[in-house]
């Protein structure tokens, strides 16, 4: 027998309950220790970018929903802001505030799914039930706004799909009150739970320098103490008017990222509350004839509006020649849309900077030298969503 | 695997059919397998608010060897096709398939190079649930409809149909 050191190759996924979809990780194991972990992606490749390049600017919005399906509103907002930048559209104040309110609640919904799935990966079964119970409230709000539970496409170019529902304020206040109350229960269940701490503290560590070099964003970056949040660094959609803190970690491990996401949920509720308190009155769509759809009420009774509606729906609008990049802080990190217009009614190129994809690149460094069981914890703490990784 | 293989051909089944189908209908074990957006609605269906456990179906199995119902929840990309075929073939008989959502049923909004235009091109589907994604109630309705199919099955008939394989 040779005395050389032998490693075992193990495939994890694409059908595995802890890979959050169809991620495949090729593991090189030395006993229980991970030598290398190579993420292999593409099992959910949908060709969304290519699809968007063959669609009118309006019609690409439903495709954005299906990228990060845990945070559909954030995707809508990123795309619409990019097109608005390209077309130089200024949206009414009310739209900005309503968007902020909805996007922050989306962050809570996305983090709730993360909380449930991450803790079920670590063996805390009941957390998933609690997290999904609270998420239902936000999904109900989506349904009241956009008529759909998940793929709402509610945020449109130049405004919203329809006016906010009559009981919007009541619903949002109920969500804020309920989730604030339930967050205390989550804290009791997990934050000081010795098993949870043992599974997450000192696991999947990344240094601030590595995090910057790997171009990480969102809680992955802030977990190492790097203060970068697109909402503060490059405010969009009126975020400069809101008062909130950006939670920072110290050690860059899975536990710090957990604490950050929990604090982000609290801050998001705070922002949503400010947005609902200060929601101004006004139209729900910008008035830009020929580019932004006229309000539906006008389309039914005014000849001109009907003509504009028909023309925009069939022909779209012609975007100027040029490129724009618009980033937003999605629940996973910096979500950017890069759109190149070529003077026609369809974009020449749409490129998405997906936070999950970039963050997933850090998996090898997070798991190197750790135990096999910690790979599950690392994948969970990155908070990937495969629809966005593969697009 | 199943009971069917132990029954000789010359026996007529009536009451045994009823009993077996009743048991099978109420203890279906789905494969815990999500692809895309629909998987989140599938989890919602199993979670607290909708609680599929009421119909005896809460035991999600991570291994296809222990499952008898495959819920194809989400879009099937070309790279995923051989994986789904393998998973289906690994499941023991008798087995059923629910195609959940527009993408799994017909490609949905994605008619392009990357997405398989309907999972029924590779594996036989029993129930199609429409929607993008379907509401949890819709999935539950699909499952109840599947239970009706299972209820009417005969052990003999199922035995004959086992010839059908992934194409």
CATH architecture name of the largest domain in chain A: Orthogonal Bundle
CATH superfamily descriptor of the largest domain in chain A: Cytochrome-c3 Hydrogenase, chain B
Helix segment tally of chain B: 6
Q: Helicity of chain B, in percent?
A: 25-40%
Query: Which segments of chain B are poorly predicted (pLDDT under 50) over 5 or more consecutive residues?
Result: none
Major sheet of chain A: size, sense and barrel closure?
A: 3 strands, antiparallel
Order of helices and strands of chain A: EEEHHHHHEEHHHHHHHHEEEHHHH
Structural class of chain B: mainly alpha
Tell me which oligomeric state these chains represent: heterodimer
Mean pLDDT of chain B: 82
Major sheet description of chain B: 3 strands, parallel
Instruction: Name the helicity range of chain A.
Output: 40-55%
- Residue-averaged pLDDT of chain A: 89
Q: Which two chains have the most extensive interface, and how many residues on each?
A: A-B, 36 and 34 residues
If you consult CATH, what is the topology of the largest domain in chain A? Cytochrome-c3 Hydrogenase, chain B
Number of strands of chain A: 8
CATH class call of the largest domain in chain A: Mainly Alpha
Instruction: Give the distance, in angstroms, between the N- and C-terminal Cα atoms of chain B.
Output: 21 Å
């Amino acid at each position: 027998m040779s005395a050389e050191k032998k490693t075992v190759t193990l495939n994890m996924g694409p059908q595995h309950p802890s890979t959050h979809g169809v991620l495949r990780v090729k593991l090189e194991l030395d006993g229980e220790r991970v030598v290398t972990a190579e993420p292999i992606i593409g099992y959910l490749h949908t060709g969304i970018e290519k699809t968007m390049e063959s669609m009118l600017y309006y019609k690409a919005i439903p495709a954005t929903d299906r990228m990060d399906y845990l945070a559909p509103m954030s995707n809508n907002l990123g795309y619409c802001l990019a097109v608005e930048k390209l077309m130089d559209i200024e949206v009414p104040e009310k739209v900005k505030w309503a968007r902020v309110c909805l996007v922050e609640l989306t962050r809570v919904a996305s983090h709730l799914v993360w909380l449930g799935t991450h803790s079920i990966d670590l063996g805390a079964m009941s957390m998933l039930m609690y997290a999904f119970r609270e998420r239902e409230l936000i999904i109900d709000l989506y349904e009241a706004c956009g008529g759909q539970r998940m793929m709402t496409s509610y945020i449109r170019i130049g405004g919203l799909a329809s006016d906010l529902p009559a009981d919007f304020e009541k619903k949002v206040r109920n969500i804020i009150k309920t989730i604030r109350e339930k967050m205390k229960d989550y804290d009791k269940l997990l934050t000081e739970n010795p098993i949870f701490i043992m599974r997450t503290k000192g696991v999947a560590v990344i240094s601030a320098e590595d995090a910057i070099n790997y171009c990480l964003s969102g809680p992955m970056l802030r977990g190492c103490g790097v203060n970068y949040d697109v909402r503060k660094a490059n405010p969009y959609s009126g975020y400069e008017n809101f008062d909130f803190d950006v939670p920072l970690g110290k050690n860059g491990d899975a536990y710090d990222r957990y604490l950050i996401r929990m604090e982000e949920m609290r801050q998001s509720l705070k922002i949503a509350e400010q947005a609902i308190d200060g929601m101004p009155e006004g139209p729900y769509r910008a008035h830009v004839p020929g580019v932004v759809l006229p309000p539906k009420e006008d389309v039914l009774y005014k000849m001109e509006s009907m003509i504009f509606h028909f023309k925009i729906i069939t022909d779209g609008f012609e975007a100027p020649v040029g490129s724009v990049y618009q980033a937003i802080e999605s629940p996973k990190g910096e979500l950017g849309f890069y759109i190149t217009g070529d003077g026609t009614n369809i974009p020449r190129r749409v490129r998405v900077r997906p936070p999950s994809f970039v963050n997933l690149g850090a998996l090898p460094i997070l798991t190197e030298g750790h135990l096999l069981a910690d790979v599950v914890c690392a994948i969970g703490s990155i908070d990937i969503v495969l629809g966005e990784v593969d697009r | 695997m199943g009971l069917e293989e132990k029954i000789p051909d010359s026996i007529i089944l009536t009451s045994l059919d009823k009993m077996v189908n009743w048991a099978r209908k109420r203890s279906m074990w789905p494969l815990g397998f999500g692809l895309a957006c629909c998987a989140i609605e599938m989890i919602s269906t199993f979670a607290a608010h909708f609680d599929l456990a009421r119909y005896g179906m809460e035991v999600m199995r991570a291994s296809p060897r222990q499952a008898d119902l495959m819920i194809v929840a989400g879009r099937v990309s070309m790279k995923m096709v051989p994986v789904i075929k393998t998973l289906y073939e690994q499941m023991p008989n008798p087995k059923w398939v629910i195609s959940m959502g527009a993408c799994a049923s017909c490609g949905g909004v994605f008619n392009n190079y990357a997405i398989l235009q309907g999972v029924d091109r590779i594996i036989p589907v029993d129930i199609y649930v429409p929607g993008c994604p379907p509401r949890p109630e819709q999935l539950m309705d699909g499952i109840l409809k599947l239970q009706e199919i299972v209820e009417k099955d005969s052990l003999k008939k199922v035995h004959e149909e086992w010839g059908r394989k992934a194409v």
